[in-house]
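Reading a protein record of the kind used here takes little practice once its layout is understood. Each number in the token line that follows is a code from a learned vocabulary of backbone shapes. One such record is shown here in full, so that the layout can be seen directly:
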Amino acid sequence: MTDFARRLDGVRIAFDATPGERPVLLVHGFASTAAVTWAGSGWVRALGEVGRAAITPDLRGHGRSDKPHRVADYAPRQLAADLVAVLDSLELDQVDVIGYSMGSRVVAALAQLAPERVRRLVLGGAGPLELFATWNLDAVNRFVLCGDLPTDPTIVAVLGPAIAAGADRDALVACVQGVAGCTLDVPAGIPQLFVGGGADPIVAGIAALAARHGAEYLELPGRTHLNALTSREFKQAALQFLA
């Protein structure tokens, strides 16, 4: 059954929690949901098979969570504070954390905001260059709100399916602007594993970034941004790293 954590500003964050030991917080990416990202790709099942609980929130602006429309509501610190509220609702002092795509930037923000709540951290599908920072925000607005096709095909590829699925358009625009430029910086002392698909241009430069962080790095040969999550190798490496 879905639960909700409520922030002091009234925003409600939907989340599910499966039974098990040593919970793992799983954070999805932009224009997706916890169910699609983590249940649909087999992660919740894989964690259950080794006896570990899965906590799967929908980020604000996504899925069953509330969808404010102000850019300030999607600042990385706000998204990270939503995750703290989820952990507080479950009375969990510290968890292992896995993020994917934009979710990796959100969990990095969580590690900056509340490093004591993060034991180990897996960052997948994200590189040193934040995708939204490369987008023309006027083109994003015209596409999402008016339907004008942009010249940048990635804007259509990322936002098009979300719009077709009925996503809140104003929330999408606010999220893009709020997250743009968010880093992957994590405080020293938190072990990190970076994972990227070998055929995913979004993670360009991730190996060098991991080396600078003194972190482990796993490349998934031939995997794209969309199918990296279904990789058995990704799941096995993450479970081993968090064990």
